[in-house]
Design brief:
Length: about 450
């Protein structure tokens, strides 16, 4: 169990970090080739008998390999008149290879992506099949996935992807031993969180671990605070291309709350030199030097691999608290809803591609994800989670996402090429190099 989960944690995290570091930029900039081959006879240049699916070639690919093998033997494949060929692309090569392929006659018919900003350029170039009507008219696809996850990969309210990997919500982790020793409970409101911070600092314990040198862990704080203050509509406006959305009062208030946390020592005084990537932040947390850690769901797998005793005995988890006076629903979630299959609009066999997408909603596919340590986003997954490496943790994640009215995609992934300059402004805010007002003004200048 340990090795499987650790492996899952490693590749889940690396997938998040690679994209956060700017892989979406490769997908959304410098794409003249995307408009050069629009009149081609079909994706892959085939006759429709076999279609090609590009997939990110990490440890989780074994689930997609099994899915393709199962589908190719199915009645659905025979009825659609073809089979699927899976092409595994190494992680570091995935984004540039997909970008190049999508502007050529050998483009994949179906391809793995992160939703949101990662596929915007393809949609704008007419390279994506709009799946909205297909999903709405097909019970398997319409009812097969958690609604918040299905919607999270959308572009302007239209479906261009089908969920095909596990969920990755951002969770408030805490050290159960530290909390028990100091008679604390996980905070359900922001005021409670601030009160806990004060008690921990009096005990010379840093309230929160934070890998500030990577910057993307800092982003999680703004994502949740903006959502709790103003609801998902605030960022949705920004994601849809309206840079003036950064001027929403919820963004300024969230930035002010971040500054208050930093100034109050909630992250200690060295967090800007601590990294998550090299294991620094997880170690600070596991060794009791910090009592809490706001991080993606892969934190459990990371801790199980690096500090198994801590993960099994002392690691607790909770939802991000309510912010008093905010209009966002406390059940809302932020993070990486999942990864998606999208379909090339030029595929010569649309029926085959759609039939293949349905396999991602199957119980067999969900079981394979669970065996790998992932939590599926299918609507029928709850009854299967008893076989997860940690059923309690898996059910917490699933219930959290199932009950969420909205699941906001990580801002850097949703914004594509603007994610990197946004990271720069977030880093300056947390490091005290810009004020909340300056942060808002700078973000309003982030335009294509």
């Amino acid at each position: 169990m340990g090795s499987t989960t650790s492996s899952a944690g490693g590749r889940t995290f690396s997938r998040r970090w690679i994209l956060g570091a700017g892989a979406t930029t490769l997908l959304t900039t410098g794409l003249p080739g995307l408009t050069a081959c629009g009149s081609g006879s079909g994706a892959g240049g085939g006759d429709g008998g076999t279609i090609t699916a590009f997939v990110y070639g990490d440890d989780a690919v074994k689930v997609q390999e099994a899915g393709v093998a199962r589908f190719n033997k199915s009645a659905a494949a025979k009825e659609a008149g073809g089979t699927v060929k899976l092409e595994k692309v190494p992680g570091s090569d995935y984004s540039p290879k997909l970008r190049t392929a999508m502007g050529s006659p050998s483009a994949p018919d179906v391809f793995f992506n992160w939703g949101g900003g990662s596929i915007r350029a393809y949609e704008e170039a007419g390279k994506l099949l709009d799946l909205t009507d297909t999903i709405n008219n097909d019970p398997v696809l319409k009812d097969g996935f958690l609604p918040s996850v299905l919607a999270a990969g959308d572009l302007k309210g239209r479906h261009y992807g089908i969920p095909m990997r596990g969920m990755q919500p951002v969770i408030l982790f805490y050290n159960k031993s530290v909390f028990a020793e100091h008679k604390l409970e996980p905070p359900t409101t922001w005021d409670q969180l601030l009160d806990i911070n004060a008690k921990l600092k009096r005990a010379n314990i840093t309230p929160f671990a934070l890998g500030g040198s990577d910057i993307w862990p800092e982003l999680m704080w703004l994502e949740y605070l903006v959502d709790r203050l103003g609801g998902p509509e605030v960022f949705q406006r920004i994601q849809d291309g309206d840079a003036e959305g950064w001027g929403d009062p919820a963004v300024l208030k969230a930035a002010e709350m971040v500054k208050e946390l930093v100034d109050d020592g909630a992250f200690g005084d060295k967090f800007t030199s601590v990294s998550y990537v090299n294991g620094g932040a997880p170690a600070v947390f596991a060794r009791g030097r910090a009592a809490m850690h706001l991080m993606g769901s892969w934190e459990y797998s990371t801790q199980l691999g690096k500090f198994p005793d801590f993960a099994k005995q002392h690691l607790g988890w909770a939802a991000f608290p309510e912010v008093e006076g905010g209009t966002g629903d406390v059940r809302n979630v932020v993070g990486n809803p999942t990864n998606y299959w999208s379909v090339n609009s030029r595929t010569p066999n649309k029926d085959l591609a759609i039939a293949f997408l349905k396999d991602a909603a199957s119980e067999a596919y969900a079981k394979d994800l669970i065996d790998l340590g992932d939590v599926p986003t299918t609507s029928n997954a709850a009854q299967l989670l008893d076989s997860a490496p940690n059923p309690e943790y898996a059910k917490f994640q699933y219930d959290m996402v199932q009950q969420a009215p909205a699941f906001t995609l990580s801002w850097d992934q949703a914004l594509g090429e603007l994610g990197t300059p946004m990271h720069t402004e977030i880093g300056k805010l947390f490091a005290g190099k810009s004020s909340p007002t300056e942060f808002v003004a700078a973000c309003k200048e982030l335009k294509k």
